[in-house]
Amino acid sequence: MIQSSRDHYADIRLFSGRGSWLKLALLLVVLVSLPLVLPGYRVFTLNYMAVFVIVGLGMNVLVGDTGQISLGHAGFLAIGAYTTVLLMTRLGMPFPFALPIAGCVSALFGFLLGLPALRLAGPYLAIATLGFGLAITQIIAHSALFGGHMGLVVPDATLGPFSLSGDVSKYYLIVGVAVVLALGVRNLSVTRVGRAFRAIRDNEIAAATMGVDVAYYKTLSFAVSAALTGVAGGLLALMTGFISPGVFTFTLSLMFLAMVVFGGLGSIPGAILGSIVMGYLNLEMDAFQELPVLGRALEDFSERFMSTVGLPNFGWVVTGMLIVFTILLEPQGLYGLWIRALKAIKRSKSADANSSLPGPGAN
Amino acid sequence: MLLQVLASGLSAGSIYALMALALVITYKTTEVPNFAQGDMAMVSAFIAYMFLTDFQTGFIVAFGAALVFAFLLGVGFEGLVLRRMRNPTHLNLIIMTLGFTLALFGLAGWKWGADQRRFPFPVSASEVVRLGGVSVSTLSVATILIAAVLMVVVFAFFRFTKLGIAMQATQQDPIAARINGVPTRAVVGLTFGISSVIGSVAALLTAPLITLDPTLMWDALLKGFAAAVLGGLNTPVGAVLGGYLLGVIENLFGAYVSVEFKSVVAFLIIVIVLWFRPSGLFGRHHERKV
Fold first, then answer.
1. B233 contacts in A (CB within 8 Å)?
2. pLDDT number for residue A314
3. A-contacting residues of B 128-167, CB under 8 Å?
């Protein structure tokens, strides 16, 4: 489905090789030291972005790798969050056990929803997930067990001997989980399963002809994606300390879609980058006026043509426009731009090497 | 009691039927479910609101302006956005409708804020008429009548006018239609325009029933899709019948089972239909095009 006029093997070569371990080590050092250098309130922002990154990884498996679409991932986020909290409060289960179970419960829901929708060709998954996302918040809002509209307070969690009450300790947990899951998703994509996903994305009929069980792998992909999102939900509950149905809206599901589209469908680094951008945007939506230079202009514009109270909604306009322009101009998003840039650099280098005579500097 | 439930089911079903019809005629033409249908209609309702309150016009001018706007929005969305895509795969087309809907939602929220507004309407939702033991609001009666008339007009248009037949031909086989002299590009654009107008009529009838805010049509969008799946995504008549059926089922559920979980019915119906009869109650089995 996602066509690329670029040479696939050349693209892979740009990223693999001996340097990638070094890059990973460098990245880990940066991640570990970030909360030590940043002011405290920024750590909360980082946590929020890391939760979005985990959702982005899940969306990437589903949309980017398998070419299916979900308009209800906020629903899986809700399932993960509520399962985690209820296991902790009702059954007294410790957080480290509740979190993976929440992921499994979310995956189960994904499986049950994907099974009928995915054996059919057509837009049925999109329609079913639209219904799912809207139904979940309705059910939560009207059930006493889930705290209704009022929401639930998340109890303090511990991880073995460590308390998880401060933002910094939450940071190490959430980012740790995100890194492990990112590596897991990366590994999944180069296995038989990952290849089956991409075969379905590129041509469903051809994949079936080659012996890929299309319905099975589509459902598996959906379940994996739901599991990751469920884990993200549990972590979201932990970091915010309070959950209510108002968080898990239809627009949030669309924002989840936007982050993988903007980052670049099928690219893990793209999904991560897109999620970081969208996570930041989502968190800072109430504070557009405080942006340097642009904030003032936005406020003036709002006063004259729109409305100042509605300014937070500007974030949805940005998100929607990012999707529209990404698909219009560069369907492979940030990742596509990155590949283009690398190619341009390469081309100019080889052009230099060809035009100039071999000298001491050239090789 | 039962008649009362049927009446309110019919009234709600009229709106679902309109949404389903709007969704199905573009789906048949492009094989893309237009997820922006609801928010396109919502913005049109806000245009009517703007004319009524800011410009103090009468209802006819305001609603006329909203429908014209809806038509232009539909044609523009198809011509300036969907058709300009570099890589129009099904996935990308769906994503595009979602991006567009989010942008419209944001624009409406930015311009008119998220607070709920009362939408002025010529007939009232609280005034009641009694018809043979059933009391129905005048708004419900108007909704049922307007929707029925509009749908008859649309079906007559498809059946009896040259343009309508050209649209059907384009839906069935765009290439064959073009060979036979149908200007398919213009016809596809027009289909989106008509679909958008039908959707915005649904929005104009929904707004006085509840209040006007940017989430106005979320529910109706889902119900429209549920109705279309129930009746058959490829059959306009089936989708309309699915809309009425959904309205009645939903109100029966609300009356006899639970009011709070009424909104979950649409989702359950989607799942049940997908399990047992994926082509819908009135649809034929849809062959996949290779």
1. 122-123
2. 87
3. none
* Domain-located, residue B285: no
pLDDT for the residue B286: 54
Neighbours of A24 (CB within 10 A): 13
Calpha distance B204→B67 (Å, rounded): 10
Look up the pTM and report it: 0.89
Structure-derived torsion over alpha carbons of residues B73, B78, B83, B87, reported in degrees to the nearest 10 = 100
| Number of domain units in chain A | 1
Would you say residue B239 lies in a domain?
A: yes
Is the separation of the CB atoms in B230 and B23 below 8 Å? no
Q: Which of B87, B100, B229 sits opposite A320 (nearest CB)?
A: B100
Its ipTM equals 0.89
Burial of B126 (0-12, 13-18, 19+ CB in 10 A): exposed
> What 3-state class would DSSP assign to B136?
strand
Based on the number of CB atoms within 10 Å of its own CB, is A83 exposed (0-12), middle (13-18) or buried (19 or more)?
buried
Q: Are A322 and A315 in contact (CB under 8 A)?
A: no
Q: Is A17 left (phi over 0), alpha (psi -120 to 50) or beta?
A: left
CA distances from A177 to A181, A231, A346 (A): 6, 9, 36
- Residue B172 domain boundaries: 2-276
Supply the CATH number for residue B172's domain: 1.10.3470
Hey, how many other C-beta atoms are within 10 angstroms of the C-beta on B267? Answer: 25
**CA nearest to A133, candidates B224, B267, B274, B91:** B267
Q: Which stretch of A68-72, A345-349, A357-361, B137-141 has the lowest confidence by average pLDDT?
A: A357-361
Decide if A116 and B274 are in contact by the 8 Å CB cutoff.
yes
Low-confidence ranges of chain B (pLDDT < 70): 285-290
- Dist CA A303 CA A319 (whole Å): 21
Domain region containing A316: 36-350
Side-chain half-sphere exposure of A304, counting CA atoms within 13 A: 6
> How much is the average pLDDT of A340-353?
82
Q: Count of domains in chain B? A: 1
Contact B270 A128 (CB under 8 A): yes
Across the interface, of A71, A113, A327, the residue whose CB is closest to B85 is A327
Looking at the complex, report in whole angstroms how far the Cα of residue B129 sits from the nearest Cα belonging to chain A. 32
- With respect to residue A83, please indicate whether it lies within any of the assigned structural domains: yes
- What is the structure's pLDDT at B234? 86
Instruction: Name every chain B residue with its beta carbon within 8 A of the beta carbon of A324.
Output: 81, 96, 99-100, 103
In a domain, B281, yes or no: no
From the list A116, A132, A329, which residue is nearest B275 (CB)?
A116
Tell me, yes or no, whether A361 lies in a domain: no
Residues contacting residue A57 through CB under 8 Å, at least 6 positions apart: A178, A181, A182, A185, A228, A268, A271, A272, A275
Nearest CA in chain A to B100: A320
CATH number at residue A306: 1.10.3470
